[in-house]
Amino acid sequence: MTTEILKVNPQSPEPEAIARAARCLRDGGLVAFPTETVYGLGVHALDRSAVLRLFEAKGRPANDPLIVHVAALTDAAALVLGLPTHADRLARAFWPGPLTLVMRRGPAVPDEVTAGLETVAIRVPAHPVAHALILASTVPIAAPSANLFSRPSPTRAEHVLQDLDGRIDMVVDGGATDVGVESTVVDLTTDPPVVLRAGAVSLESLRAVVPEVALAVRPTEADGNMPMPSPGLLSRHYSPRAPMVLYRGRQASTREAVRAAASAAIATGQRVGVLATDDDVKTFEGLDVTVAGIGDGSRAEHVASRLYAALRELDIAAVGLVLARDFEQEDGLWRAVKDRLQRAAGSVVMVPD
Ligand code: TXA
Ligand code: MG
Description:
Strand order of the largest sheet: 1-8-2-3-7-4-6-5-9-10-11
Bound molecules: threonylcarbamoyladenylate, magnesium ion
Structural class: alpha/beta
Low-confidence stretches: 221-229
Shape: globular
Helix content: 25-40%
Number of domains: 2
Radius of gyration: 20 Å
CATH class of the largest domain: Alpha Beta
Largest sheet: 11 strands, mixed
Order of helices and strands: EHEEHEHHEHEHEHEEEHEEHEEHEHE
CATH superfamily of the largest domain: DHBP synthase
């Protein structure tokens, strides 16, 4: 199959292009499109065989459920068994936007979408292209991130093509996405509601609307036999191809530890890649490493929007080892950035003294 690329104006997408992509979706096609977080790979959510083709194209295990994207809260209501407590307030505060709500699924939603769970994850994206596409298709759109399973999510159309060229029908190219990390997933079927995946909407801003929102406890390797509360809690995900090691601690010591580890690996003949903030870059001067920049290390928004592209740059440079330092900040969007760094590293974390 040839993957068609449709370039659109991200702020006000051309109606003809949107109509073409929407028709493809309605006919059961696989269409990647930008959202404010990352590119999604969309499919008609009520078309079972199309949903199965999507799992195949991504190489995604069938037990990992999809997020259904709709245009408004009223469309979400049609897919669930009654709106749970807090849904209305959270939707009013954060929709359209990068918040995904898990609710009890209604009979309209196929098993293939929810991986057999009795719940369904729903969000109303804010990106003009995503919104226009959902409206024009007139159907709910199931869309995981448009990457091959376990790879870093795509923040540009070219990242989608790196993974899925020839495996999907279309890419609607609306340029780089804004946030760069995925939506926050909140389970509303429990009391209190629980954040299953940290994301673009911070815990602080959720708690400003619903103070009792809790954080999911990440299962550790020791809990290996326990069922996952959400497959999104897998510990290695969003990863570069090479093994990655994350250094955690105070900035001065982690910077030094990454430099020392890089030198040692180079000495054994390895090709080394590092994730580096603007301030880190000079640390690597004179070393034969591939540096992937993640921007201003004092701004989570900057790092979030660069992170996945940087991991992909290191893949393209074919490094054999990726080194990065963790951030000390914990609040706001940092929580999602730190979560993705830890998962990219498959929880291989070193704490230098
Ligand atoms: O920002 C985003 O959320 C992007 C854009 C495209 O909307 N989508 C995205 O989808 O990241 P995906 O499939 O890569 O991640 C969906 C996450 C997974 O962690 C999945 O386990 C979780 O949502 N999820 C989906 N349905 C669920 C459910 N019923 N219960 C619990 N977790 C669910
Ligand atoms: Mg994903």
